[in-house]
Amino acid sequence: MIKLRQPSLVLHSCDVPGYKYRMKTSWEMPRGASANDVVYWINYAINASDEAYLHNVVINCHGSPGGLHVGGCNNSKKGITGGSAIWAGDLGVFKGVKRGSLGTIYIVACEVASDKTTAKLGTNFCSQLAINAGCFVVAADKIQSVDFWFQVFNHPYGAIDDYEGNVIEFSPSGGQRGWNPSDATGTE
Predict the structure, then answer these.
(1) Which residues pair with 12 in a beta bridge?
(2) What's the CA angle centered on 131, arms 127 and 134, to 5 degrees?
(3) What is the pTM of this model?
(4) Is the Cβ–Cβ distance between 4 and 159 less than 8 Å?
(5) pLDDT in tens, 116-138
(6) Could you report the per-residue pLDDT of 135-157, keeping only the tens digit for each?
(7) Residue 164 placed within a domain
(8) Which domain holds residue 173?
(9) Would 110 be classed as within a structural domain?
(10) Nearest CA to 10 among 140, 127, 151, 161?
């Protein structure tokens, strides 16, 4: 379990499985949510916080190498349409996050930081997100799962479950390094 300092914001995709995390501010994103919506919700939560600062933003959604499915996944086999994702071309909007008002974005999504191809889609995406948002970004390169106990019982307020795979921290200057909870920015 990774305990996060408050105030924090969690944004849940409409179709994300498992237990929903709870932070000072917790929202479920509707089907079709976009990068513009995510930036709006981050800035809204910053403005609404007593400190005019968010220590953390958790984005809990489906993912793929270099992509966040914040507005739900399109799955034609199940008749689900109207989903939307954030891809590299959408990251410029994150320059609209209030500078100096956000500590770390935690991405809880499968394979977002994965570099399955030589194009380095995952690490380039996460690095550019950190640069544009002006904060740290933490993401993993493997399929993520929600711990059984967090699905069945009440998940602790202000915490997310542990990551699977290699976890990377991307800095606002464009650097990256391996990450573990003991040296995390923005945790208690």
Answers:
(1) 28, 60
(2) 130
(3) 0.91
(4) yes
(5) 776 799 999 999 999 999 999 99
(6) 999 999 999 987 776 666 667 89
(7) yes
(8) 2-179
(9) yes
(10) 161
